[in-house]
What does this fold into?
Amino acid sequence: MEDILPKDQASANAPESTSKKNKFKISVLGVFLTIILTIALILLGERILFDLNKAVNPLIESSTQTVQNYRTSYSNKYVSERSPLSQTVIRYEKEKKGEYVLYKMLIHSAFVIPIFLLMIFFYFRFNLRDKFSDLRVVMWGYVIFSFWMILHLLGEIGKYVFEQYKNAAVYIVLLLLVVIFSILAVLLQNRTNKHLS
It folds into this structure.
């Protein structure tokens, strides 16, 4: 098709259309709903982590729904852990605490790491493309949830390392943080540069 507009008008209209295309408006209600979504996802994730540990960890001796059944003589041999979102209490032997925490971290890692990688994939897939611009607000809720879960896992790992390997703990945790966030920053910057060019 032949361009019937004069050259001056065509060049003047081109920058406006591209600037409107790159503009993305976020509604206040969308942000509010995303905050609620993020809170719900975090609560769901915390509950899933506790229930996975309760269901899979072989060192759990008992699980009850109330705290009142806990006796002093029982507490000398066992350690209890309560769900942050319910009255469920799990107990394990005090002398096997290191093994229990290691199992717990492995179980949590099997859930958190795939969720984190999946959310980063979806972020790159949907958030950086113009045709999925309506999903951007929702994706931020899922990205914040995945970062919350990975920070939760890093906190558990750090606590375990500090308790079990006091001398090497600082180096291990710091190296782990350096590696994870360096790779993440490079990937994000690389993807952003590809998107802009």
Summary: The chain has one domain: 35-196. The beta strands are 60-64, 78-82, 89-93.
